[in-house]
Design a protein that fits this description.
The protein has about 450 residues and is of the alpha/beta class. It contains 15 helices and 24 strands. The protein is globular. The C terminus is likely disordered. This is Trk system potassium uptake protein TrkA.
């Protein structure tokens, strides 16, 4: 597939790395020649220096025969105009735009993005998606990573295995026998920095980070089995009152199960804006690293602190400071993936990677087959793909044990009609079933082949 990525910043570079690694024809466009050079030097991509919205620049990038354009520059307006030019001048079939301004994202104006108005097929909002990821982390405090699938009825949860975990040194096949009614399955294990898909004879050891797929009704029981407690969040302190922090605070206010939130924001203008937008949330103006201010926010009584400023190092330090003041759980927003190995030594319980969130949302529209959702794990090491099985799929009509899955692939959940079931070897995968598949990055092409459909569905 031929793809043009407009914007060679953090998000654009990450998307380019992901897609070029799968042998797609990728061209990166940015008006900053240094960023273009960085992309072409480190990735197998072509680069064009220039403004992405200029027709002559898109022509040089090969827009006339491009299959998709992803507009991910820092300017909403440039991204929108780029999609318009790609549609009107070059008839690019698929157009994705990253939009950050809330005014453009308001639901009552969604009619703006029709093909006869502003022809954008998919709108990606990093701030809103990161805010949703933050809310999911808060809803599952025992997990370091979490994502919902099958219309929110099943969850992928990342759990650290502690020394007191009751199922340490137990082969996974025995877990299936011991907890036969539990709709949960271990789909991935990270051990000594390496992520792999486990086999039935593999065991869990202290220090492992494992990923489980679990039905929402069985979450509490699954956490108990893995030695975790399900804590209800009632008080949250949010450090950073920008777009992400404000969105999270608004959502917490709107929830039926009342969660009391306090926001700390260093910038006076942002703090005043947040105070005006929020009804029941207390907004404090000051530095989130200030011990006196944290004490004023009653950090020692909070159930969690969410650090979502625009500075990774501030988020990390604020999380550590809050933990030292007695807060039991700290979540930090981290853009730089090289900082992620520091999370555990620093005692930070969970982190959110905005690039991973954005890449996941874009991959959903890139994968072949009737793909409903994609979640990228780690530094693009693996994906969890939710898809509908169509009649032309090689999986349709086959027993699970007879499907030729690669070693790095595990089916974590299956929905048949309205019922979500745990996969077994004897289960027959039928047309119309929805499957959630964990796959290592190297096996994604083979999973796409298994989900392949007729050309009508592309």
């Amino acid at each position: 597939m031929k793809v043009i990525i407009c914007g060679a910043g953090q998000v654009g570079w990450q998307i380019a790395r992901h897609l070029s690694g799968e042998r797609n024809d990728v061209t990166v466009v940015d008006n900053n020649a240094d960023l273009v050079r960085r992309a072409t030097d480190s990735l197998d991509v072509q680069g064009i220096a220039g403004f992405a919205s200029y027709p002559d620049v898109l022509e040089k990038a090969g827009a006339r025969d491009a299959d998709m354009i992803i507009a991910a520059t820092h300017s909403d307006e440039v991204n929108m105009v780029t999609c318009q030019v790609a549609h009107s001048v070059f008839e690019v079939p698929r157009k994705i735009a990253r939009l950050r301004s809330k005014s453009y994202l308001t639901a009552i104006y969604s009619d703006l993005y029709r093909r006869d108005h502003m022809p954008i097929d998919v709108v990606i909002s990093p701030e809103m998606e990161v805010a949703e990821a933050a809310l999911q982390r808060l809803s599952a405090p025992a997990a370091f990573d979490t994502e919902k699938f099958l219309d929110g009825e099943a969850s992928l949860m990342g759990l650290t295995i502690d020394d007191d975990c009751p199922i340490i040194n137990t082969p996974l096949r025995q877990l299936t026998d011991l907890f036969s009614t539990l709709r949960s399955i271990v789909v991935g294990i990270r051990r000594e920095g390496t992520l792999f898909a486990p086999e039935a004879g593999d065991q869990l050891f202290a220090g492992d980070a494992c990923y489980i797929m679990v039905h929402n009704e069985d979450v509490r029981r699954a956490l108990e089995i893995f030695g975790k407690t399900h804590r209800k969040q009632e008080r949250v302190v949010i450090i950073g009152g920008g777009n992400v922090g404000l969105t999270v605070a608004k959502e917490l206010e709107a929830r039926a199960d009342r969660i009391r939130a306090k926001v700390i924001e260093r910038n006076r203008v942002c703090a005043e804006r947040a105070a005006e937008a929020l009804e029941r949330t207390i907004v404090l103006h000051g530095d989130g690293l200030d011990v006196a201010l944290l004490q004023e926010a009653n950090i020692e009584r909070a159930d969690a602190v969410l650090c979502v400023t625009d500075d990774d190092k501030v988020n990390m330090l604020a999380a550590v400071r809050a933990k030292s003041e007695g807060c039991p759980m700290a979540i930090a927003l981290i853009n730089d993936p090289t900082l992620e190995p520091l999370m555990e030594p620093l005692g930070i319980d969970a982190y959110i990677n905005p690039r991973s969130v954005t890449v996941s949302s874009i991959l959903r529209h890139f994968r072949h087959g009737r793909v409903r959702a994609v979640y990228s794990i780690g530094d693009a090491e693996a994906e969890v793909i939710e898809a509908e099985v169509l009649s032309t799929s090689p999986m349709a009509g086959q027993k699970m044990r007879d499907i030729d899955f690669p070693e790095g692939v595990i089916v974590g959940a299956v929905r048949k009609g309205s019922k979500i079931v745990r996969p077994t070897g004897a289960m027959v995968i039928e047309e119309g079933d929805q499957v959630v598949i964990f796959t290592l990055a190297k096996d994604v092409p083979e999973v796409e082949r298994l989900l392949q459909v007729s050309i009508d569905f592309f």
